[in-house]
Each structure stands twice: as C-alpha cells, then as structure tokens.
Specification:
Layout (H helix, E strand, L loop, with lengths): L1 E10 L3 H13 L6 E4 L8 H4 L4 E2 L10 H11 L6 H20 L14 E2 L9 E2 L6 H14 L4 E4 L2 E8 L5 E8 L4 E12 L20 H9 L3 E2 L4 E8 L13 H5 L3 E3 L19 H15 L4 E4 L5 H7 L1 H9 L9 E10 L2 E3 L11 E3 L4 E2 L11 H17 L12 H11 L9 H15 L6 H18 L8 H22 L23 E2 L12
Parallel strand pairs: 1-2, 1-9, 2-6, 9-16, 15-17
Antiparallel strand pairs: 3-5, 4-5, 7-8, 8-9, 10-15, 10-18, 11-14, 12-13, 13-14
Helix pairs in contact: 1-5, 1-11, 3-4, 4-11, 6-15, 13-14, 13-15, 14-15
Bound molecules: flavin-adenine dinucleotide and succinic acid.
C-alpha cells in the first residue's frame, strides 16, 4: 500500500475543514505540511447550502450583547447546552467573524455600507449576518475554498474518502486510511494530528435538507476507533423544507429567515395555526414549529402545510431571498403570489464526537470540529445560525491550540497499526452490494421509527431491523466502493441514534418520546462509549 506523511490531516471541506486548514497554515510553520482530504469536490458540503446566515455578536452591532446570545442559546437547548462552551463561542464570535472578513468573506451591507442583520426563530434580536441575501454558505465556503486553493502549504486531495483511523496499541490516533474514488486504491496517511470536519448525518433519514455526502462518516470512524460519542438522539428536523411530492427526498430548504421576515404558516384550509402551539408563533424554537406542522399534517392526513411568503412583499423577497425565489420559480411557484408547500426534514445532527471548543476528543491526536463534533453548544436543540458560528470558532481555536503542540512526533508502526494495514492490503472477494437500495431501506426505517415522534416500541422495531441489515451486510470493514463505505457508516450512525433515543426516557428539545411527554428539569448528556468489542465493531 502507498503511504505518505503530513504534520496535519484535515478531513472534510465544508466551513469547518476549510477554515481550519487555512488558519493552521497561516499560524503554524509545519515541516510536513497540511493535507486536506474531501470525498466531494472542494467546498461541496452542507456548508455551501446554508441560507439564513451566521450568528455573530460583533462590534458592528452595538444593540447586541453576549448575555443575550447565551440566554437564547441555552433556552433553545432545553437545559442541555453547556453554559461555559456557549460563553466561549459567543465571546470569540467578534474576533472570528472579523477574521473571516479580513480573509475576503463578504457579508451583506446597507446603502451606507453597514452590515445588515436578520432575525431567526428564538433569537431575541437581529444578530444574524448573511451573504448574497440567502446564500450565506456559498459566500463563506467559496471564499474559503479560494483562499485554500491559493495556499501552497495545503495539499488538496478531492474525491478521496477517509475510511478508517489509524489507532496505535496505546490508543493514539496516528493517521488515517483513505480510499481514492478515481483510482479505487487505498492509501495510508501518517500524521500527528487528524482533524475530522466531516459534517452531519442527515442522509440517514428519508427526507433531509442535507446533500448526499452527509452520511455521518466522521462519527462512525471515531466511534469505531473508540472515541466517546455524545447526544446522538438529538436530530434537528427543520420545519420548512420544500415538499413538492413524497418522491422528492433531498429537500430544498426554505430558510427560517423567511419566517423571520414575516411569512406565516397555514394549513390546507388556509388557516394560520401556530398560535395554537406557541405564543411566539412562527418564531418559536425549531422543534416546536416542527411538531406543530407534523401535528397539522397528521390531522389533515396531508403530506405538507404551506408557508405564505406573499406577506413579505415583492421588493424584499427579491433582495433577501433570490436563491429561494429562483428555486421555487423553477418548480412553478411564484413565492410573491403563491404559498409554498413545506414539510419537516432531517436537517442537523446535534450530537456527535464529544469534543471541546479546541476540537480535542477522547483520543489523543484526534480532533473533531463542526457538525461532526458535539461540544455541548447546541444542547437538545440548536438555535438557528449557531452552527456556522461553531464551525469557524472551533476551527480558529483548534489552530491556536495546535500552534502550541508538538506536531513532529515520529511514526511508530506498532502491532495495532500493522493489523489494520493488513486488513486494507488484502483484496476482498464477494458480491458488490447495491448500496443505493440498502441506504434507501435504512432511511425508511429511520424516518418511520426514529423520526420527529418516537416511542419505545418504534425504537425497538428500528433496532431490530437495523441489526438485521447489519447482519446481511456482514459489517464489511474494507469495502468495494464509496457507496458501500457510506452505507457501512450510516448503519453505525443509525444504531447510535437509536441507542441514544432508547436511553433517553424523556422528551427534551428535538427528541420527542410520545411515551415520556415530560422533560426532566436537569439535562444530562448521553455519552456512548464503544458499546463492546462485539457490539458495533467490524467483523472480519
Ligand atoms: P459540512 O459543511 O457538511 O462539510 C463536510 C465535508 O466533509 C464535506 O466536504 C464532505 O464531502 C466531507 N466528508 C464527509 N465525509 C468524509 C469522508 N469520509 N472522507 C472525506 N471527506 C468527507 N447553519 C447555520 O449556522 N446557518 C444557516 O443558515 C444554515 N443553513 C443550512 C441550510 C441547509 C440546507 C443545511 C443542510 C444546513 C444549514 N446549516 C446552517 C447547518 C450548517 O450548514 C452545517 O451544520 C455546517 O455547514 C456544517 O459544516 P461542516 O464543515 O461541519 O460540515
Ligand atoms: C435556515 O436558514 O433556516 C437554516 C438556518 C440554520 O440551520 O441554522
């Protein structure tokens, strides 16, 4: 097997991975350079689809303050957000967002040249910066990708997937095994620091706003390596994804900012209904709006409700929501005149690899940032636009931390690593699975049984069916193609979500157990250590 050596390996090219690679290169002189691996083309990720914006308690917005942002975040998090982490991230936002601006990222401004701020659900004031109206993710990701491509210290490998972490016998991360989709070859990359920035796992659900690549790979890899995984039961279902037909599964998002600017939800009878569910109506926390829509859909036996954006006015719609207007127009909907059919879809993975704000995980040498990580910032329900903020703050803080770390540790290839390399050196025989079909079966199970509303019965049903799929797939460690690797990882992540959901015998934030309607007063994180050696691990 071919091998290479880098001081730092960054896996993933969304906002977290791109910004981490850039900051590390700007801050640290590295003898062996930085490798950035992405299974997509550079920048293709959840990040690029972000619409609403990025939270920033910045000096350009004197009306805002840290305490107010902390209060809103903790309230949305339903007693599970970590206060210390929330404070650290909020306090860092001014420096980090202004560093993005200094690195060429542009946010929308008014005619006087002042940054404009929008409002989203459960924020008590306008504090969300946006770019290109409703194309914030594109603005940030494309700007960072340009800077990364221009940086000679960063070696980029696109269409290349990380498939297993190299863990030494003394449980340190020493690198990663990668699979090149084009050459169909596996390679070993040794490194003193491996950074997982692989995003979320929306694709384990039938309906999702996430693109195809969001299969939770980083979470599965870290789990198999023995890292602690936290809060996987908390999957955020965005209330308003464009619901053209039950067959449209990867759903285009209709940003919360549309409600922030005055759009109203109506049922099939044309009646506004949010007041029945929350005095905050359309601007209640996301989980509340999602359950309200779900209830209306059940009552009417309908696949969607509607979002009436005509109330916003043509001029504002054109200026603030050009991407959403264009996408709806392509599908025959003029949003200045007609209500938009919407329904909830899996959107954000609140849980993930337990990490601190500097990205440190429970394994030495392994770091996790962005949606794949769980710092405790989002608790049981993420506040809108806090995610991009967490991505960039943790990337920034990690780079700072690494600048004080020895990144030149020699690679000792011990017995543990030798064994792993052995598995990937052998050729494998056997049928090639139809991974699209298998993924689709898993997504149906998750949507039906581990979705917006859960019960012990539905969760046990999912557990049983997933175990059956795992047996049929024979938990291949080395796979034949990217689709198989993704399916392998999705099975692990789905099991972790079910495990977390079964353990949490209460309703809290995005986790709604019909059989346990009460939220207990104190939140406790659900840490999942590797279940046991025979549990979810690969069998040869
Ligand atoms: P991603 O941006 O998802 O990037 C992950 C990267 O890792 C990708 O490049 C992927 O190809 C790569 N990758 C994955 N697995 C592997 C592997 N095994 N090997 C190699 N590479 C791999 N948040 C906000 O704060 N504000 C918003 O307005 C907002 N709007 C959103 C709208 C939509 C439609 C969606 C889906 C999300 C939105 N979010 C928003 C959430 C936010 O965009 C994401 O949480 C955030 O961008 C995640 O960034 P990331 O860098 O952690 O992961
Ligand atoms: C949106 O624009 O509604 C999504 C914002 C987010 O996910 O934070």
């Amino acid at each position: 097997m071919k091998y290479s050596e880098y001081s730092v390996v960054v896996i993933g090219s969304g906002a977290a991975g791109l910004y981490a690679a850039l900051k590390i290169s700007q801050q640290i002189k590295l003898p062996e350079g930085i490798l950035l691996i992405s299974k997509s083309s550079l920048g293709i990720s959840n990040s690029i689809y972000a619409q609403g914006g990025i939270v920033g308690v910045v000096h350009q917005n004197p009306d805002d303050n840290i305490e107010s942002h902390i209060k809103d975040t903790l309230k949305a998090g339903a007693g599970l957000s970590d206060k210390k982490v929330t404070k650290e991230i909020s306090e860092a936002s001014d420096v980090v967002i202004n560093d993005l601006i200094n690195n060429g990222i542009e946010f929308d401004k008014d005619e006087q040249g002042n940054i404009t701020f929008t409002l989203e659900a459960a924020h008590s004031i306008r504090r969300i910066l946006h770019s290109g109206g409703d194309a914030t993710g594109k603005g940030i990701t494309e700007g960072l990708a340009r800077a990364v491509r221009a940086d000679n210290n960063i070696h980029i490998l696109e269409k290349t997937m990380a498939v297993e972490l190299l863990i030494s016998s003394d449980k340190e991360c020493k690198g990663v095994i990668i699979y090149n989709k084009q050459t169909e070859e596996h390679e070993i990359v040794y490194s003193s620091a491996v950074i997982l920035a692989t995003g979320g796992a929306g694709q384990v659900y039938k309906y999702t706003t996430n693109p195809n690549g969001a299969t939770g790979d980083g979470i599965a890899l870290a789990y198999e390596a023995g890292a602690v995984i936290q809060d996987m039961e908390f999957i955020q279902f965005h209330p308003t994804a464009l619901a053209l037909s039950p067959d449209s599964k990867n759903r285009f998002l209709i940003s919360e900012a549309v409600r922030g600017e005055g759009a109203k939800l109506i049922n099939n009878m044309g009646e506004e209904f949010m007041i029945k569910y929350s005095e905050k109506k359309e601007l209640a926390p996301r989980d509340v709006v999602t359950r309200a829509i779900y209830t209306e859909m059940q009552k009417e036996n309908s696949p969607n409700v509607f979002l009436n954006a005509t109330l916003i006015g043509e001029e504002k719609i054109a200026r603030r929501f050009p991407t959403i207007s264009a996408r709806c127009r392509e599908n025959g909907i003029d949003i200045t005149k007609t209500p938009i059919p919407v329904a909830p879809a899996a959107h954000y993975t609140m849980g993930g690899i337990k990490a601190d704000v500097e990205g440190r995980t429970s394994i030495k040498g392994l770091y996790a940032i962005g949606e794949t990580a769980c710092t405790g910032f989002h608790g049981a329900n993420r506040l809108a636009s806090n995610s991009l903020l967490e991505c960039v703050v943790c990337a920034y803080e990690l780079s700072d931390y690494l600048s004080f770390t020895n990144l030149n540790t020699p690679n000792v290839i011990d017995e543990g690593i030798k064994k792993m390399i052995d598995v990937y050196s052998r050729s494998i025989s056997g049928e090639e699975y139809n991974s699209d079909e298998l993924k689709s079966e898993l997504k149906d199970i998750m949507w039906e049984n581990v979705g917006i509303i859960r019960t012990e019965k539905s969760l046990f049903k999912a557990k049983e069916e997933i175990e059956k799929l795992q047996k049929e797939f024979k938990r291949r460690r080395k796979c034949l193609n990217q689709g198989e690797y993704e399916y392998r990882n999705m099975l692990t992540v789905a099991s972790l979500i079910v495990e977390g959901a079964l353990r949490r015998k209460e309703s809290r934030g995005a986790h709604c157990r019909k059989d346990y309607p009460e939220t207990l007063p104190e939140g406790l994180h659900s840490n999942i250590d590797k279940l046991n050696e025979k549990g979810l691990c690969y069998v040869e």
